[in-house]
């Protein structure tokens, strides 16, 4: 049995709705409302005749940054689902927060919204207050505001806004289950765990690139030190040149999967984030569809059509989740192979580094300049190998988790 609506956390000036409830609305491509459920009707405070045919922004609250809607429209316009925290306003001025799951449909867009309660939602509220104030004070263009939101996601450690919202959706579903006294949903927990592993890969790849870029200056330092210790063209100079040439080959290979447009890590992240968001969306769509069984007839709304549309979206999201996961698994396996290849190339650099250490001992570098430079190489080599090992392990975890999910779905 569904738990009763929980209004215990409501405060003055806040529209009431429970954790057990879901908002539903559907619009055309211009954002004009075509349908909505009883929760949307009740909480918004508008009569049906005032909702149907009205632009959805009729419930928009000015405290929601315009950049949020720029991100949403960009994703939906490209045919992709997206999520967002949104602060809305009822007809009487009361406000209410939702986490919205938005999906493109053939003739417009559909939104299912739940009541957020995770610690993340509290942080988002504070960020929105600051950003919306900046929008008004600095007259920020929505695209600039959207960039600020993407930067916030990046600062939190997420490679894309979709990945950030997939994480948020998982957290909100888990928090909602707890509020309603439901047992933890295994699919939701898996969503959160896979997303965490995915973002660890992203963090490791950026640290790896920074370490390797810092490494590039060391051969030059070695050559400068060598010019003081040996005749031109001596062994240390030759070692530094060999090291530089070999490291440039690895650097190019490294950049092909951690830097640049549509790099391998980005492809893993994009497909995995899409799969994880769809995984959470599927659960929301399924529950919303079940709620329509008891829908009260409303003039102007064809509930049979809405149920059919939701069932189709539920099935499509299940299919798209599987497809995105299969692609992410393939990219993750390729990423693991690329990491292993770079690790093998690093063995060649290690050999050159050891030769430098031997030559340093032979020359009895009393000033310590060459020895200190080789020490730097030791540190960077250890760091790079650890990063590569971490990327390989996390890539395998992602692939394994998604394969387990796919096998479970097949059964």
Cα gyration radius (Å): 27 Å
Q: What's the count of strands?
A: 5
Share in β-strands: 5-15%
The backbone outline, from C-alpha atoms, is elongated
Q: What is the subunit arrangement here?
A: single chain
Largest sheet: 5 strands, antiparallel
Report the average pLDDT across residues: 84
Cα end-to-end separation: 27 Å
Order of helices and strands: EEHHHEEEHHHHHHHHH
Strand order of the largest sheet: 2-1-5-4-3
Keywords: Receptor
Protein name: Aerotaxis receptor
Domain PAS fold-3: 37-105
InterPro entries: PAS, PAS-like_dom_sf, PAS_fold_3
Secondary structure topology:
Elements: E1 23-28, E2 33-36, H1 38-44, H2 48-51, H3 66-77, E3 82-89, E4 95-105, E5 108-114, H4 119-138, H5 142-155, H6 161-179, H7 186-215, H8 218-229, H9 235-258, H10 264-291, H11 303-363, H12 369-410
Antiparallel strand pairs: 1-2, 1-5, 3-4, 4-5
Q: Quick summary of this structure?
A:
With 411 residues, the protein is α+β, with helices and mostly antiparallel strands. It has helices at residues 38-44, 48-51, 66-77, 119-138, 142-155, 161-179, 186-215, 218-229, 235-258, 264-291, 303-363, 369-410, and strands at residues 23-28, 33-36, 82-89, 95-105, 108-114.
């Amino acid at each position: 049995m569904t738990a009763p609506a929980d209004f215990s956390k409501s405060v003055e000036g806040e529209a009431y709705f429970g954790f057990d409830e879901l908002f539903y609305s559907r619009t055309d491509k211009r954002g004009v409302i075509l349908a909505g459920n009883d929760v949307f009707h009740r909480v918004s405070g508008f009569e049906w005749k005032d909702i149907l045919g009205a632009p959805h922004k009729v419930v928009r609250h000015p405290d929601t940054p315009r950049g949020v809607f720029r991100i949403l429209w960009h994703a939906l316009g490209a045919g992709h689902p997206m999520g967002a925290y949104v602060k809305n306003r009822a007809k009487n001025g009361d406000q209410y927060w939702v986490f919205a799951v938005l999906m493109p449909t053939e003739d417009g867009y559909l939104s299912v919204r739940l009541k957020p309660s995770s610690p993340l939602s509290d942080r988002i509220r504070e960020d929105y207050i600051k950003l919306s104030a900046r929008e008004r004070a600095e007259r920020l263009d929505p695209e600039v505001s959207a960039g600020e939101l993407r930067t916030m996601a990046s600062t939190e450690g997420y490679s894309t806004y979709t990945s950030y919202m997939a994480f948020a959706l998982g957290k909100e579903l888990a928090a909602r289950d707890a509020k309603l006294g439901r047992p933890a949903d295994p699919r939701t927990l898996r969503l959160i765990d896979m997303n965490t592993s995915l973002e660890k890969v992203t963090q490791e790849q950026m640290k790896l690139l920074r370490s390797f870029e810092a490494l590039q200056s060391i051969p030059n330092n070695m050559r400068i030190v060598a010019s003081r210790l040996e005749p031109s063209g001596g062994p240390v100079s030759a070692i530094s040149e060999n090291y530089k040439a070999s490291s440039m080959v690895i650097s190019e290979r490294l950049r092909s999967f951690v830097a640049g447009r549509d790099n391998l890590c980005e492809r893993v992240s994009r497909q995995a984030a899409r799969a994880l968001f769809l995984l959470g969306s599927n659960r929301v769509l399924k529950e919303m569809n079940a709620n329509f069984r008891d829908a009260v007839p409303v003039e102007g709304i064809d509930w049979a059509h809405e149920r059919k549309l939701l069932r189709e979206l539920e099935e499509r999201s299940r299919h798209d989740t599987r497809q995105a996961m299969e692609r992410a698994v393939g990219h993750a396996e390729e990423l693991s192979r690329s990491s292993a290849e770079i690790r093998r190339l690093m063995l060649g650099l290690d050999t050159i580094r050891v030769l430098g250490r031997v030559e340093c001992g032979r020359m009895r570098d009393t000033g310590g300049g060459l020895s200190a430079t080789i020490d730097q190489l030791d540190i960077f080599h250890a760091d790079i190998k650890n990063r590569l090992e971490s990327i390989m392990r996390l890539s395998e975890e992602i692939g394994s988790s998604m394969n387990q999910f796919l096998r479970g779905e097949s059964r």
